[in-house]
Amino acid sequence: MTSIAAQQERAPGAVKRAAAPAGRRKLGRKGRERLAAALFLLPDTLGLGLFVVLPMLLSFVLSFFQVSGFGSYEWIGVGNYERMFNDPYFWSSMWVTAKYVVILVPTLFVVSLSLGVLMKQMLPGMAVYRTALFLPHMLSLVVVGLLWKFMLDDQTGVVNKAAGEAGLGARSWLGDPGLALYAVIAVTVWYYMGYYMIIFLAGLNEIPRELYEAAKIDGAGPWTSFRQITWPLLKPTSFFVLIVSTVAAITGTFDLIFVLTDGGPANGTAVAMFYIYQQAFVFGEYGYAAALGSFLVLVMVALSWLIFKATKGGRFDDEH
User: Facing residues of 75 across strands?
Assistant: First the structure.
């Protein structure tokens, strides 16, 4: 009896140890989901850290040095930033950037949203039109720049020939300081409108069709349906498009401007990114270029914060 009782007393512990041995305990459902999420995010996190965050930190550190060629660094503190505030050419490039962003972003937003609403219609051939509108974004900006530089040529460009056929005078689209920036903006809109149209289409497809059917029964027209249903429910998508297009306008079109106008004429298209490129890779002022780049990042963060506050992050309940 004593032996049997002793075995019964030891049995629960033995079963417990067999069920959950140390180091071999199985993960629960939430644990497996967290592990899977971490593994999926790991490549992006490593890429973001290595190719974005680390270069930004190194660039910020570099902005406090006077760099004269590779391997020659001299600590000058905030000297590069003092030079930046007294550099009229940099502030001229910031003014050009401001005009570029203020004109480009609203134009691109309206055109892309209009195309998204139009392409949402279930009409024959819409798949072909969607593909045709998105195709320019499949090309590199260098190819797009070369293509449009040829089309906008004063003498042989198809744009001036079409203007002549329409009875309009020929223009120097890329050689006139008063026209060059607008020509670059038009090409940029042509390049990006298909991409943002697809994003708006994704947002439009998330809106339940029953809402439009109910509004139609209540006698609402297309404009009323857009104002009361489409626009409020597209706020998260609109917020995303505003943020991404603003950042892209400041930093992402350097290739296009470099190929189309090389910053000219008379610095009319020399945006801040182009000026930073010149300081770093034309004049070898790497420390000064790093300071300008750090300042530009600060401007983008401030703009993103303002857009976030103005749109309340694209939330639906912004009235409350």
Answer: 65
What's the distance, Cα to Cα, between the start and end of the chain in Å? 74
Contact 185, 104 (CB under 8 A): yes
Q: Which of 194, 187, 155 is nearest to 171 (CA)?
A: 155
pLDDT digits (tens, 9 = 90+) for 28-41: 888 888 899 999 99
pTM tops 0.85, yes or no: no
- 309: burial class by Cβ within 10 Å (0-12, 13-18, 19+)? exposed
Give whole-number Cα distances, 59 to 54, 86, 93, 294, in Å. 8, 21, 20, 7
User: CA 132 to CA 148: how far, in whole Å?
Assistant: 17
Please report the DSSP string for 62-79 in residue order. HTTEEE-STT-EEE-TTH
pLDDT for 276 equals 93
Residue 82: alpha-carbon gap to chain centroid: 30
Give residue 122's pLDDT band: very low, low, confident or very high (50, 70, 90): confident
